[in-house]
């Protein structure tokens, strides 16, 4: 990569504080709206079809835009792209709030805003992943990504409670205004970030968008570790679908769960993620990042299997918390591997491919496991996918290309 510690400004710590502060403020406002809309649809329609449509609207635009967004993240100023995405989401949310105030409160407007917000996220995700190596020294990437994971977990922990409290105190449209305000604060905060434009964006863009995208795919194809890396993630995300989407239904069916049981599952998982992020930020993981990635995969496989067999709800919560601990052990080394090993000129496009995989594979998995959950017990699916995840983790830790890629950067 062309990014190196010497090229970074001395005040990189100030820059990362500004960047993470901006992302935290933006994510918190977005999470509030996400939970508020989801609960509003649930309470007003009580329809599984409506919830499915809402989820699809929140996934498909990100998936479709990711290839183009990855090219944008390599061709243009990444800081400005992130600010533009926040601005787009804020303007769309403001328009929705005004329409609701005027009495236009059709549920289809909520589907539309979910799609626009997903469009903004699709622009933002590759740029966020690609900009970090521009402002963080290589030897600090794991710790910074670990801290970022803990912050995201805290937001996951707090957002449902704050969102529920706000929804009880004010109408939905006023929560939209809260999101607009947090987006504005995030944009202003990010404007103070001092980061130089990366080399490709500073130069003349001679190739077209499609040529740039094809070149990105060729780069992935000829890079020794990216093909097995992305193949692993694609299979992993499909196998994760039951644990990610069907556990609330399992709690309702098998433990006669109500609101507090469902909330307890979310809280346990979020607390585990906070703890795992703190451990990774302090420890940094194994010297070979592939070993940390493999450990996270194995723990998640064990937890998925355990969620299918434990008969006691409190033990179930304990495994859900351990599941949360494993997530930063998985996400952080995976992100840092890309940030360290991929050339800066291709980072946006590579993170665009990663975004496509992460936003498409679990929904595809649900096309299989969702209908199956009405035919066979969810517990059997968790046991089966847990065993397969453990086998996948074993092959991951034995893969020579990934072992070589995971070695410390020099």
UniProtKB/TrEMBL annotation:
Q: What is its main location?
A: membrane
> Signal sequence span per UniProt?
none
Q: Which GO terms describe its cellular component?
A: plasma membrane
Location of the Major facilitator superfamily (MFS) profile domain: 1-198, 220-410
| Regions that span the bilayer | 12-37, 49-69, 81-101, 107-132, 144-168, 174-193, 228-247, 267-286, 293-310, 316-338, 350-372, 378-397
The domain of life is Bacteria
Q: Where is the protein localized?
A: Cell membrane
The UniProt keywords, alphabetically, are: Cell membrane, Membrane, Transmembrane, Transmembrane helix, Transport
Any idea which GO molecular function terms this record carries?
Answer: transmembrane transporter activity
* UniProt name for this protein: MFS transporter
Pfam families, sorted:
MFS_1
Q: How does it sit in the membrane?
A: Multi-pass membrane protein
């Amino acid at each position: 990569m062309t990014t190196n510690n010497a090229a970074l400004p001395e005040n990189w710590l100030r820059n990362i504080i500004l960047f993470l502060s901006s992302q935290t403020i933006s994510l918190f406002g977005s999470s509030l709206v996400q939970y508020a809309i989801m609960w509003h649809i649930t309470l007003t329609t009580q329809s599984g079809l409506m919830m499915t449509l809402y989820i699809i609207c929140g996934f498909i635009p990100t998936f479709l835009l990711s290839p183009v967004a990855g090219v944008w993240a390599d061709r243009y100023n990444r800081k400005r792209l992130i600010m533009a995405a926040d601005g787009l989401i804020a303007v769309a949310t403001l328009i929705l709030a005004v329409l609701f105030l005027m009495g236009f409160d059709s549920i289809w407007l909520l589907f539309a805003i979910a799609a626009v917000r997903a469009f903004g996220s699709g622009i933002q995700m590759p740029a966020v992943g690609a900009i970090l190596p521009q402002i963080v020294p290589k030897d600090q990437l794991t710790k910074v990504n670990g801290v970022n994971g803990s912050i995201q977990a805290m937001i996951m922990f707090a957002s449902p409670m704050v969102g529920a409290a706000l929804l009880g105190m004010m109408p939905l449209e006023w929560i939209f205004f809260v999101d607009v305000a947090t987006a504005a604060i995030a944009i202003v905060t990010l404007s103070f970030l001092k980061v130089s434009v990366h080399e490709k964006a500073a130069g003349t863009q001679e190739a077209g968008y499609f040529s740039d995208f094809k070149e990105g795919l060729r780069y992935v194809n000829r890079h020794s570790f990216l093909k097995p890396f992305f193949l692993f993630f694609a299979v992993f995300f499909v196998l994760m679908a039951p644990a990610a989407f069907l556990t609330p239904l399992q709690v309702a069916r098998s433990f006669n769960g109500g609101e507090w049981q469902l909330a307890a599952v979310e809280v346990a998982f979020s607390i585990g993620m906070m703890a795992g992020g703190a451990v990774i930020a302090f420890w940094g993981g194994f010297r070979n990042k592939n070993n940390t990635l493999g450990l996270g995969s194995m723990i998640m496989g064990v937890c998925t299997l355990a969620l299918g067999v434990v008969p006691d709800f409190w033990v179930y919560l304990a495994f859900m918390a351990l599941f949360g601990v494993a997530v930063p052990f998985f996400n952080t080394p995976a992100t840092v591997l890309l940030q360290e090993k991929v050339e800066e000129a291709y980072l946006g496009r590579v993170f665009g491919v990663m975004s496509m995989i992460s936003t498409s594979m679990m929904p595809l998995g649900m096309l299989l496991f969702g209908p199956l959950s009405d035919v066979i017990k969810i517990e059997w699916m968790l046991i089966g996918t847990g065993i397969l995840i453990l086998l996948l983790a074993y092959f991951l830790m034995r893969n020579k290309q990934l072992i070589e890629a995971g070695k410390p950067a020099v």
